[in-house]
Amino acid sequence: MLIGAGAALGVAAIGWDLVSPSLSATAAGTYLRPCGDVRISSTWQGHRDRNPPSGEPGTDYAVPIGTAVRAAADGVIVDRKDTTTTATGRYLALRTDDGNYIRYLHLRSSAVLPGTRVSRGQVIAESGASGFGSETGYGSHVHVSLWIGGTPLQMGFTNSVDFENYVQPEDPVPTHQSTTYAWNGVLPLATWTPIPVSPNFYYLAESSHIAKETGDLVIYLHAAGVTKGFQVRVVAETLDSSGRVVDTSVQPSLEIPATADTSPNTPTFGQYTLPYLLSGRLRLFAQIRALNAGIKVQRVIVKKNYWLS
Ligand SMILES: [Zn+2]
Which residues is 31 bridged to in the sheet? Predict the structure, then answer.
């Protein structure tokens, strides 16, 4: 549910093909990193570039031993190894509900048995450095491997794909901070267009089913070429457990008229404010619509004060 203060949110079935990312069976952009936004010590490509190449290319997330490892998606644990032997050390394997297969290697311990259904974000293991018969066969990290649409035995262990291409981007607007994006596109006339907040990224906020987010969202826009005006609004998408958009809810739009001085070098300044509560799997993005031709947004600033509970 999403509550916007001062504005009841009607839920409308509106076509969003133009602005919604295409969420295919490969769950592009929905997986959770195992330990949050931490340093990657070796990329999937880095594993492939080794000499000899890695037998199971994946992404290495550098975290201290004992860090909680969280499931990338809803699914079922389908394999578990509890010995430090071989290059993998202890591992867990997750069959995700979207049909893919993920392995977490070099664990210190696993918290779930094969057959267990897990939720995205659930703690399933503790990170370690296990491998080659030792608790410290490596530097401490979590190695995550991903196969699309099959098991590693079916597809080949070396035919994994880059997990990082499938993760949910971290919130681009840190708590109690703002982010500024230079956006120099000319808006199409009378067309709702998504407002980017970083290169190729549109989302202002996202909540999972395990955390609620309460916040105040402010979008500042500087635009040139405004002779009539433009409109801004925020849209909320409700997602199902596979990350597919199942509902779309549109906030009332705010109209920002041209400033009195409409000479080309005088930017029009607009501000849209939204107190919000995200509960359940929801995400927000903003849209802009030009009321005259030739409007160019020069700068987008998004500021958020928010709290997770
Ligand atoms: Zn690795």
Answer: 167
* Residues listed for the chain: 309
33 domain residue, yes or no: no
Distance 309 CA to ligand 1 centre (A): 33
Tell how far the Cα of 24 is from the centroid of ligand 1, in angstroms.
27
Find the 27 Cα to ligand 1 centroid distance in Å: 23
- Give kind and range of the element (H or E) at residue 48: helix 44-48
Compute, in angstroms, the gap from residue 32 CA to the centroid of ligand 1: 18
Strand partners, 278: 2, 213
Residues 148, 107 within the same domain: yes
Spatial distance between the Cα atoms of 175 and 305, rounded to a whole number of angstroms: 6
Among the three residues 106, 135, 166, which one is the final residue of a domain in this structure? Answer: 166
Separation of CA 57 and ligand 1 centre (Å): 7
**Distance from residue 200's CA to the centre of ligand 1 (Å):** 28
For the stretch 65-110, pLDDT in tens is 999 999 999 999 999 999 999 999 999 999 999 999 999 999 999 9
CATH number at residue 296: 2.60.120
CA–CA gap between residue 53 and residue 38 (Å, rounded):
24
CA of 242 from ligand 1 middle (Å) equals 26
Q: How far is CA 57 from CA 102, 126, 158, 304, in A?
A: 12, 21, 6, 37
Measured in angstroms, how far is the CA atom of residue 134 from the centroid of ligand 1? 16
Look at 43-52, 172-181, 288-297 and tell me which has the smallest mean pLDDT. Answer: 172-181
Domain that holds residue 290: 2-21+169-308
Global pTM reads 0.57
Query: Is residue 31 a part of any domain in this protein?
Result: no
